[in-house]
Amino acid sequence: MNAAVKPEAPSTAPASALEGLVADAMRACGLPAEDAQRVGKLMAEADLTGADGHGIFRLPQYVRRLKGGAVNPRPRIEVERAAPGVALVDGDNGMGHLVMSVAADTATAIAREIGIGWVGVRRSNHAGPAALYVDMLAKRGLVGIYSVVASSNHMAPWGGTSSLLGTNPLAIAIPAGEGAPPVLLDIATTVVSYGTVKKHVLNDMPMPEGWLVSKADGSAITDPKRSGEGLLLPIGGHKGSGLALMLGLLAGTLNGAAFGSEVVDFNADSATETNTGHFILALDIARFMPPAAFAAVLQRQLDELRHDTPLPGTDGVRIPGDRRAVLRDARARDGVPIPSPLRRQLDELAATLGIPPLASRL
Q: Using the 8-state DSSP alphabet, how is residue 359 labeled?
């Protein structure tokens, strides 16, 4: 019997190299230089903060959709102020990172003006990890809440067998004061995001039981090659399914965006507009108490939680956002890990687009 082949260790690349590769790829697909740089910065930030399924990993897919005509490289993003605390953004089918940047800026402006701003979005696209956009708000001293209709359906409504719901994430960020990372929760409403499944497929790694079940008989699927046969399981059983549904209605239906069977699987389709819907809410802490006073109380409460006696068998209490902040510092110092299969994909992409490969940027 042949010995198992050990996977190649991932190489690393500085975030600046990833940002440059993305920006050049976006320009090669027709984006203006400033927009291309913005997408590159946000995708590199995703990798820095550990959202490996939503950063440079997505670049080949984004390029396929731009080249296939599914995404508008030069959108005219429009904002309609529908009421004092409400706005609606039409993304004109642009890159989701650009559309959501406008939405976050709009929510910020409204919250500064009246204390709270809810911004709905339609005709957008996949925008990377949800954490990016609530983190933007937290850095401005605002509470941020965000969700989106995922760009493909991989979950059935509770008790069903048809893929009619997405991983529809929920992200919440609460600023914790000057120099401190925000309390930041970013969760899929499924046990695992589909981006993580795609990473296992790319690297041919078995999946744990409890992620996917067969549509045919409900049995567990652990072979990554069979992932297309399965349904992602929701967090908390029927509660996660219900949460995905409610978030989808608010991000999709309420904004005139796709939901349910209307959702286009952007993994398989490189020619069709997705009409992705999002919402983002910004809340001004200063309308409740001085931000410094809030931060002081919050830090005291967080310290109490962090210093709780660890439950045996665990690593102790971890506050949402702590690992993200530690990982960002480490990757900013040591580089972002790039698995060998992804590195080969990126090299092939660079050659196809006629741009310098990652190796020349290190």
A: G
Contacting residues for 159 by C-beta, under 8 A, at least 6 apart = none
Kindly state whether residues 83 and 97 are assigned to the same domain.
Answer: yes
- Cβ atoms of residues 277 and 120 within 8 Å: yes
One domain, residues 83 and 63:
no
The residue among 295, 328, 343, 291 whose CA lies nearest residue 132 is 328
Give the tens place of pLDDT for each residue, 176-235: 999 999 999 999 999 998 878 988 988 889 999 999 999 889 999 999 999 888 899 999
d(CA 115, CA 52): 34
CB 151 within 8 A of CB 274: yes
Q: Answer whether 47's CB lies under 8 Å from 55's CB.
A: yes
Amino acid letter, 19: E
Residue 348: which domain range? Answer: 10-67+335-362
This prediction's pTM: 0.94
Amino acid letter, 172? I
What phi and psi, each to the nearest 5 degrees, are found at residue 141?
80, 20
| φ and ψ of 130, to 5 deg | -60, -30
Q: Over the stretch 71-119, which tens digit does the pLDDT of each residue have?
A: 999 999 999 999 999 999 999 999 999 999 999 999 999 999 999 999 9
Rounded distance between C-alpha atoms, residue 338 and residue 344, angstroms: 10
Let me know: does 266 contact 152? Beta carbons within 8 Å.
yes
Residue type, 362: L
Residue 9: exposed, middle, or buried by beta-carbon count in 10 A (0-12, 13-18, 19+)?
A: exposed
Whether 330 maps to a domain, the answer reads: no
Q: Are the beta carbons of 206 and 222 closer than 8 angstroms?
A: yes
Residue 200, CB-side half-sphere exposure with 13 Å CA sphere: 20
